[in-house]
Amino acid sequence: MNVHPYVFFGGRCAEAFRYYQEHLGATDVVLLPYRGSPAESMAPPEWHDKIMHGSLKLGNTTLMGSDGSHGEPFTGMQACALALGVESAEQLEGAFAALAQGGTVRMPPAPTFFAQRFAMVTDQFGVAWMLICEAARPQ
User: Where's the PhnB-like domain (predicted)?
Assistant: First the structure.
């Protein structure tokens, strides 16, 4: 079994996934609009180009998402965050800078008792992130 986060972007899924591709190095980006799908007839015309389902890869993790259902409000992530594990402090700083652009910094990158560097940010798409570069473990 695998658990894959599924995020609703309220109309900004394609924009968010392309941003993650450019700034976080996401790969295998798939964006499936309502147009041309079996659900096209159930969506109003203004939703035909919205994303019914999308996916991308961040490292070994698949992130899935969509614009949601037309008329169904999604208010963002209130009780969870995506945890992005990185291999170096430099990688954390770069990812943090990209995610903080237009977003809200909740905790700037800093060393903690459990990590070499740790940060928290809500990006411009309303997605909450926790970034962690773990400390080297003693042998």
Answer: 3-131
pTM of the predicted structure, to 2 decimals: 0.90
Indicate the SS3 state at residue 51. strand
Q: 131 by DSSP, 3-state: which? A: strand
Residue range(s) of every CATH 3.10.180.10 domain in the chain: 6-66
Q: Which of 71, 67, 80, 54 is nearest to 9 (CA)?
A: 67
Classify strands 51-58 and 61-66 as parallel, antiparallel or unpaired: antiparallel
What are the C-alpha distances in Å from 110 to residues 10, 26, 120, 128, 137?
32, 25, 10, 17, 18
Reply yes or no on domain 82-134 having CATH 1.10.10.10. no
Q: Tens-of-pLDDT digits for all 139 residues of the chain?
A: 989 999 999 889 999 999 999 999 999 999 999 999 998 998 899 999 999 999 999 999 999 999 987 767 666 667 899 999 999 999 999 999 999 999 999 999 999 999 999 999 999 999 999 999 997 665 5
Residue range(s) occupied by CATH 3.30.720.110 in the chain: 82-134
